[in-house]
Amino acid sequence: MRDVVIVGAQRTPIGDFLGSFKDISAIELGVIAANGAMAQAGITSDLVTEVACGMVYKAGNKGNPGRQLQLRCGMPIEGYAYTVDQQCGSGMKAFELAFQSILLGKIDVALAVGMESMSQAPYILKSAREGYRMGHSEIHDSLLYDGLVCAIQGYHMGVTAENLVEKYGISRAEQDELAVISHQRSIKAIMDEKFKEEIVPVSVRTKKGPVIVDTDEHPRADVSLEKLTAMKPAFRKDGTVTAGNASSVNDGAAAMVLMTMDKARELGVKPLARVKATANVGVSPEVMGIGPVYSVPKVLEYAGLKASDIGYYEINEAFAAQFLAVNRELKLDMSKVNTNGSGIGLGHPVGCSGARIIVSLIYELKRRKEQYGLATLCVGGGPAIAAIIENI
């Protein structure tokens, strides 16, 4: 079996909803991350023959954003590119597909990208093509219609978190406490410059000239239990899931260059990590957030490893309740999970996050000098996806 390694891994800062990146498309953010990853690897774009892009909010971005990114980056026109939507898992699914193409011997070098601009998700007039002859019609917010509302159950993803609250007896206090921890960890990571290696700065045009954004925008130093406790339930009148203990709506991109170990040696490129395994599972849509409970043992099995072999985990926080439910089952040591923040503190640009958590995992493994790391996400509709990488 071919040995597949990651030789470049970069991401943009995560922008707030309607924040610094509101006028920058997902494709532009993806190009910035992709160019950063290739520059870090020390390779030229002509070596990349496959581009796999994960993206959820494609409406208004024209056809196949992955191909647009590929050509903007100067990659060979004879190469191929595609765009995949697996909701929150899109960036990791793109990574998996690129990994599999190399593993199967189809190519030697690939680029995997997760990219999203939730700020630019458009509104949709579904009946406009036939014309409005009389009466009212409805404008659909694609932010909800194409992602945040479950396509199968017809209700907001926040309701799936409330379902887990009921099933696992999770308190409001537990959720708010985790949200505070997520922000505190994110702020500390920024203060300690832990993201410096993985972030490629973004130049933003303003009326006063270009401004360089090189720091995640969402983490809040002033988040407190008092403030979170005062927030009202967002999804059920008598619920406990709020905007404060849920992940946020954001913009950002992450990219990785993958190749065979033989190709890396040929090019004189130093690998960052080895891809050990990926895995996918499905759970009931109404409790989609519990997916990592099943993706984690499955990817461990595929990698031929035990839970005790994993030195660090990135488990995306879609909701505090969701993460708490997962850890009720997995019982992980919190000193080895999301220690630099996750979806609540850092933000969750949905098409980007699956790639972002692998990028962040790579660098945290190096800081900790751990051998194996595991990244996983729950996914709207019920799938879950996971990956294990080896620090080299």
Q: What can you tell me about this protein's structure?
A:
The chain has 392 residues and is an alpha+beta fold. It has a domain at 4-121 and 249-391: Peroxisomal Thiolase, Chain A, domain 1 (3-Layer(aba) Sandwich). It has 11 helices and 14 strands. The chain has helices spanning 26-41, 65-72, 90-103, 142-148, 157-168, 172-191, 225-229, 261-267, 292-303, 320-330, 350-368; strands at 4-11, 15-16, 50-54, 80-84, 109-117, 123-124, 140-141, 202-204, 211-213, 250-260, 273-282, 310-315, 372-378, 383-391. The strands form 3 sheets. Strands 1, 2, 3, 4, 5, 10, 11, 12, 13 and 14 form a 10-stranded mixed beta sheet that branches. Strands 6-7 form a two-stranded antiparallel sheet. It has a two-stranded antiparallel sheet with strand order 8-9. Helix 3 (90-103) packs across helix 11 and helix 5 packs across helix 10 (320-330). It is globular and about 60 Å long. The protein starts with a strand and ends with a strand. 56% of the residues are buried. The mean pLDDT is 97.
Which descriptors apply to this entry?
single chain, 392 residues, alpha+beta, Peroxisomal Thiolase, Chain A, domain 1, two-stranded antiparallel ribbon, 14 strands, 21% strand, acetyl-CoA C-acetyltransferase activity, transferase
Write the layout of secondary structure elements.
Layout: E1 4-11, E2 15-16, H1 26-41, E3 50-54, H2 65-72, E4 80-84, H3 90-103, E5 109-117, E6 123-124, E7 140-141, H4 142-148, H5 157-168, H6 172-191, E8 202-204, E9 211-213, H7 225-229, E10 250-260, H8 261-267, E11 273-282, H9 292-303, E12 310-315, H10 320-330, H11 350-368, E13 372-378, E14 383-391
Helix pairs in contact: 1-2, 3-11, 5-10
